[in-house]
Amino acid sequence: MKVVLAYSGGLDTSIILRWLQETYDAEVITFTADLGQGEEVEPARAKALEMGVPPENIHIEDVREEFVRDFVFPMFRANTIYEGEYLLGTSIARPLIAKRLVEIAAEHGADAISHGATGKGNDQVRFELGAYALAPEIRVIAPWREWELGGRETLMAYAEAHNIPIEMKRGKKSPFSMDANLLHISFEGGPLEDPFTEPPSEMWRWSVSPELAPNEATYIDLTYEQGDIVAIDGKVMSPAAILTELNRLGGENGIGRLDIVENRFVGMKSRGAYETPGGTIMLRAHRAIESITLDREVAHLKDSLMPKYAELIYNGFWWSPEREMLQVAIDHSQQYVSGDVRLKLFKGNVDVVGRKSPYSLFDEKIATFEEDHGTYDQADAEGFIKLNALRLRNLARKRSGS
Length: 402
Prior knowledge:
Elements: E1 2-6, H1 11-23, E2 27-34, H2 43-50, E3 58-62, H3 64-77, H4 94-108, E4 112-114, H5 123-134, E5 139-141, H6 152-161, E6 177-180, E7 185-188, E8 218-225, E9 228-232, E10 235-236, H7 239-252, E11 257-263, E12 269-275, H8 277-293, H9 296-315, H10 321-333, E13 339-346, E14 349-356, H11 364-367, H12 380-400
Parallel strand pairs: 1-2, 1-4, 2-3, 4-5
Antiparallel strand pairs: 6-7, 7-12, 8-9, 8-13, 9-10, 11-12, 13-14
């Protein structure tokens, strides 16, 4: 049997690698994705070699550009947030990993894929729904749902018994479960399991505290073409470079911290803390450029579709036909969403201070409080109001019996 494993090189996935070899007598192929998590991924190659994986079975790929271009940017065209707050940083990375797992499985003629997601979380759903959508006959092996290894002590004992190298790092181990990519870093577990406990200040990794952010505001200009940022302060950059720079600017100004309790797809509530500095800036700026380029009814209809779109991504349905249908509508709405947005970044806040577009629907002649020179007849408003009041007046009369 051949199995493609989503492999980080850490203890958990190294144990899974050995467990697959022993339990299924499997030839394991590893896939490690560089999603911009901020840690070296090459050590995973040495670790896999040490675990007996031949070089031709080790895949380490830099997918940062694909991640931002084909997943993050399309999601932000929809102004996507889950349950009014969460910018879906973990959720949006999973369909890309699922895609590469099944593609590598096809390249090697593998029988199955495997992942290290637990049976309590959302990621198992996201990985597996994505895999089945793209490769309906693929087999998925989820060790956390099969093995008897439960807690950290059991895992450590298994590692020792099976000669799995354990890296002993200096310093105190973080109490949090963390996941990072170019869009965000998430924190769960430890003291966060009490939803009334404030996250400790030392937990945050990407941003300064707003109180400690610079006392001078940072101004930036973002240039949009058809709903996507293409330049910062006039400098054209790739999608991944844009998000990297926005993360830096946002982090320096204390932007993007979030502490929420969310509803997992599997049924439980979960408390998580997130840092999404670049994404927070992107969301605010995109709504600003849309405010002058989208027709009112298109904008309102798009906003009404967004919660469903966000739910589909959160629940793992990126590769579903309904998400693809919504994406076509969203992308169609972005044809004229081009222009420039000026932002003021200051102590955790993102303020829009300017927006312009060659496709702007803002008409100063109509909107002005000064003399409008006949472009808008204010007397027309009387009939408009009476027609809209007709049903309300009729209802009031009926209820009052008059």
